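Question: Hello, beginner here. Any chance you could explain the protein record under this note? Any guidance would be welcome.
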Amino acid sequence: MLKKIGIPSNNVLHANPRFGTNYVDYVQKNYIDGVTNAGALPVILPIAKPEAAKEYVDIVDALVLVGGQDVSPEYFGEEPHLKLAEIDQGRDAFEIALVLEAIKQEKPVFGICRGLQIINVALGGTLYQDLPSQYHALTVKHDQYPTKWYMPTHHLVFKSHSWLTGVMNEKALVNSFHHQAAKDLAAGLTLDATSTDGVVEAFSDESRRIYAVQWHPEMLLMGHVPEAQALFNAFVAKI
């Protein structure tokens, strides 16, 4: 039987030419492809009240938390920075509840980009609300736009022997589309990799079955980067 992996959705918050005010919940297809190609069954979880987290986690074997809006600073005790972009407090609250419930049920969690950030916040960590203005050691372009999303652009510096060992090439390049990042890691998380300027790129906690990366392996699938699918495979192997 295939392992079922819950992928909490994003949602369209604004009227747009295609859907008007007929708002939609969605997940980019590349996340689905990464999970499916790893031999698991993706299950999309529409945004709901935090109280629904238990029922959702009950029906899946693991979670993959994906990219999207900024995380609201209310969840790590700060006022909104001038450079804070769009937030979705309902999504934040739901995903935090999912993370905590998955840990309670001892089910693995894999965070990607915003997913890494929301895991850190859910467990008591903090974020840089805006790297360019708050992280003074910045020397790497962490939002590579307008470079294509499937093109890797910067290196990793591995900090520990981790689940990434043997999955990621030590000289691998990754892509980068973020202006927020983990600042203080929550207790129990191990720093696995940074960018060359020290920004958190990966962490994990094997005891709680938590794994997270700041880059976008699902986008790299389109560039046929071998480590991209290998990450999804390695996570599914943890279930």
Summary: Helices lie at 29-37, 53-58, 89-104, 114-122, 131-134, 217-220, 226-236. The two ends are 13 Å apart (CA to CA).
